[in-house]
Write a structure and sequence with these properties.
With 419 residues, this protein is an alpha/beta fold. Helices cover 53% and strands 13% of the residues. A six-stranded parallel sheet has the order 7-6-5-8-9-10, with helices on one face. Strands 2-3-1-4 form a four-stranded antiparallel sheet, sandwiched between helices.
């Protein structure tokens, strides 16, 4: 059995690729079941966020996991697998475990140290658990990844200086306007990203926050939390001429702000600039809106510059976190090797016991009638011989569980004792 992870992220694929390959939450159960039905696949999990799409598998050794995942994503998202290939990375066994631990610890995030990814990974695990597609090696790796992330948070300050994507969006808005005091903002979408943006906007001193969402209940809750005003989702276009900043993070699968609509909005603003930040995947704002006079559109990839400026302050903490991850990878691999040794040791003991009892039965007819004391003596004598023969091999097997050469020793013992 091997562990593999195949995927793409903000470092390997632009937002237009990520949005095309993303899996909506409601599609995950069916996708997970399809993956679990692939030849050689024993466990599966899909992590799909605005910055990454990753598929983790526990599969048979002869399974070509990368090719399998390419074909699966191609079918699921209706694209040519050959088109996907250049954007993908693929890890197996210790490299896959290291990647999972780094993702959970937010070391592989666009914003190193941000806390959202751990929650997203836990949601992906829960979806797989509910679908019955994690129950062994992959589940063990995932649950350990959560513990590693907790250790990184408690033993380093990597999260203390981190900026969220929402924070970066507000910082960029400040750069455009100089100050957000007196500016009006509309949040399209009332999820976690919007809530974080609202907190930063409130601190930046905006004059008013408008909230619109397909679910009016969530819009109302956010508006009340930040002293904002609700705008009907079906009529939010009419409110745009009065706002200076648009932050879009709706879960809509298509553009909800199109060039023609925004052309009329900008005309109504009479030359006043508008800053539009699209932190949704799939994107909410048609990119060509940026061609309109006075409209400045930025998507999640454009926020990278703001994020990178924040990386320097976390460099040392990131190094400390990487050391923790390396330590935890070694520990986890040692546990796996020890777990693999146990069946080997049991098999060796069973094989030797079978030889012992077989030899006793073979010569029993020549021994004649035996008293209970003689039977007991033969049992003790033969068991003692077997235990002395097995002791050295079993001790060495247990000792080698913590070393890379352990697998070679197991193979040698199997061949010697014909297990």
């Amino acid at each position: 059995m091997k562990l593999s992870l195949t995927g793409l992220n903000h470092n390997t694929a632009p937002v237009e690729v990520r949005e095309r390959l993303a899996f909506k939450a409601e599609l995950l159960p069916a996708a997970l079941r399809e993956l679990a039905g692939e030849p050689g696949v024993r466990e599966s999990m899909i992590l799909s966020t605005c910055n990454r799409v990753e598929i983790a598998l526990a599969a048979e050794e002869d399974c070509d996991a990368r090719r399998l995942v390419e074909g699966f994503i191609g079918r699921a998202r209706g694209v040519d697998p050959a088109w996907i290939g250049p954007y993908l990375y693929h890890y197996e066994d210790s490299d896959a475990i290291r990647h999972l631990f780094r993702v959970a610890s937010s070391l592989d995030s666009m914003v190193v140290g941000e806390p959202q990814i751990l929650g997203q990974l836990k949601d992906a695990y829960e979806a797989a658990k509910t679908s019955g597609t994690v129950n062994g090696l992959l589940e063990a790796a995932l649950t350990r990844a959560f513990a590693v992330a907790k250790r990184v948070r408690s033993e380093t300050e990597i999260g203390q200086a981190a900026v969220s994507v929402s924070y970066a969006a507000v910082e960029m808005a400040k750069q455009i306007f100089g100050s957000l005091k007196g500016k009006k903002v509309i949040l399209i979408g009332a999820g976690k990203m919007s809530e974080l943006a609202a907190r930063h906007l409130e601190r930046a001193g905006v004059a008013g926050i408008l909230v619109t969402n397909r679910s009016p209940e969530r819009a109302r809750a956010m508006a009340e939390a930040f002293g904002g005003r609700i705008v009907e989702y079906t009529a939010f276009l009419a409110a745009l001429p009065e706002v200076d900043v648009v932050i879009a993070s709706s879960g809509a699968p298509h553009y909800i702000l199109k060039r023609e609509d925004m052309k009329r909005v900008m005309a109504a603003r009479r030359g006043r600039p508008m800053f539009l930040i699209d932190i949704a995947v799939p994107r909410n704002i048609e990119p060509s809106v940026n061609e309109l006079d006075g409209a400045f559109v930025y998507d999640i990839d454009d926020l990278r510059k703001v994020v990178e400026a924040n990386l320097g302050g976390r460099a040392e903490e990131a190094k400390a976190a990487e050391r923790i991850v390396s330590d935890e990878v070694d520990r986890f691999l040692a546990r796996l090797r020890a777990r693999e040794m146990s069946p080997m040791i049991v098999s060796l003991q069973q094989q030797l016991e079978s030889i012992r009892t077989g030899e006793i039965e073979r010569v029993r007819g020549r021994l004649g009638p035996l008293t209970p004391q003689q039977e007991e003596a033969i049992e003790a004598l033969t068991r003692g011989i077997i235990n002395k023969i097995a002791h050295g091999s079993i001790t060495e097997l247990r000792r080698s569980a913590d070393h890379p050469h352990g697998a070679h020793l197991v193979d040698a013992v199997r061949r010697i004792f014909r297990i």
